[in-house]
Design goal:
The protein is α+β, with helices and mostly antiparallel strands. The protein has helices spanning about 15-30, 55-65, 125-130; strands spanning about 35-40, 45-50, 70-80, 90-95, 100-110. It has one domain (about 15-130): Beta Polymerase, domain 2. The protein is about 25% helix and about 30% strand. The relative contact order is 0.15. It catalyses: a ubiquinone + NADH + 5 H(+)(in) = a ubiquinol + NAD(+) + 4 H(+)(out).
Length: about 130
Amino acid sequence: MDAPNENPLLSLDDPVHARLSEYGEHIGNLLPKYVQQTQVNHNNELEILIAPEGILPVLTFLRDHTNAQFKSLADITAVDVPSRQNRFEVVYNFLSLRFNSRIRIKTYSDELTALDSAYPVHKVADWFERE
């Protein structure tokens, strides 16, 4: 018997996937100056790529907007891809307890350009940004 190629629980036709895609598009329409791309990954998690200058406005929006409430910063991490011009990808993982939802915000930088700290919006970022 052949095993299925994909997990049926993670179908891209899932209504959750569709709602997350719509929500990502909605955020992109509300913050067009900063949002560059939205996508829902294979685990049904919304990922938003933002311009580096959008860190504070986007994180503030996601924390304070009635339909977001992403008040819990779970983690900040970075990926180094030396072959890219902007080799560092900084990833912010958030949780909205009110809506039981997660979101991942990504931005980028090179080795000479500093990014704004998320500390003014999320005090816990102080610990994550020490690396």
